[in-house]
Amino acid sequence: MFVSLTNLVAETGYDVPGDMTLNDLLALCSAELFGTEVPPSKMATLKDGKLLANPSQTLEALGVQAGDVLLVRMLSAAPQTLQTSAPHQSQPSSSPSASIANNPRITELIKSIKVPPSKKPNLLRENARKIYQLMENPAQRAHIYFKAKPLVDQYTKDPKDFEAFVRVYEHMIQQEIEKARLMSDPASVEGQRLIQEQIQLENINYSYAQALEHTPEAYIPVHMLYIKMEINGHPVKAFVDSGKFVMVIIFCLET
């Protein structure tokens, strides 16, 4: 079964058997996710917002299925304040959300996640202007289209309206910040959905880029050349294949 793993910065995936332990999977992916070897004991793994508390168990025993996306975070040293609780604290609820909120490891995990701060308006405007200037180049505009379609749509609608372009850019940044906030919350089902959606989108973009490189004729217009001629007294239209077509064009240009 294929399982995807992410730490909200990098993603990876493996085709693994169900009897593989979570510890083995973490040891396999740590270098790709964090750029260095990290002991499994220093990582926490969540599935659908729930901590997989016993990494020595097999993936099948932990309920991991094909197509699942696991959130992996590196744990820091637990602060002493996590070991104490208020005297008047009520009894923990038996609901999953309450058990997550009262779990010290989850509390530590949530505190370790940092949501990127909002950029200052001046910096946003400066970045928007740089992208706006790149839009003048059709090749750059085509490249930006795959990453920021709303910006290209706005520029195509009115290339001279820079203020509208800035507003669209600011709205996109706000959406990304909100998405990062949701994805940084391990207890958020919506955040887990966004992570899986992002991984699927990146896989689609990769497949599209590979197809565009190796079979471009499937994505671009193809002009066909026909020539009127006569065979045995019968008028026909002969189709010229692409190789001869190129030769005809070159000959026309030379003459």
UniProtKB/TrEMBL annotation:
Membrane-spanning parts: none
Region listing for Disordered, in residue ranges: 82-101
Compositionally biased region (Low complexity): 83-101
Gene3D superfamilies: Acid Proteases, Phosphatidylinositol 3-kinase Catalytic Subunit, Chain A, domain 1
One of the protein's GO biological processes: proteolysis
Keywords assigned: Aspartyl protease, Hydrolase, Protease
SUPFAM superfamilies membership: Ubiquitin-like
Origin: domain of life: Eukaryota
Domain Aspartic peptidase DDI1-type: 216-245
GO MF, one example: aspartic-type endopeptidase activity
Entry keyword annotation includes Protease: yes
Cited InterPro entries: DDI1_N, Peptidase_aspartic_DDI1-type, Peptidase_aspartic_dom_sf, Ubiquitin-like_domsf
Sequence similarity: Belongs to the DDI1 family.
Identification of the protein by name: Asp_protease domain-containing protein
Protein's organism: Haemonchus placei (Barber's pole worm)
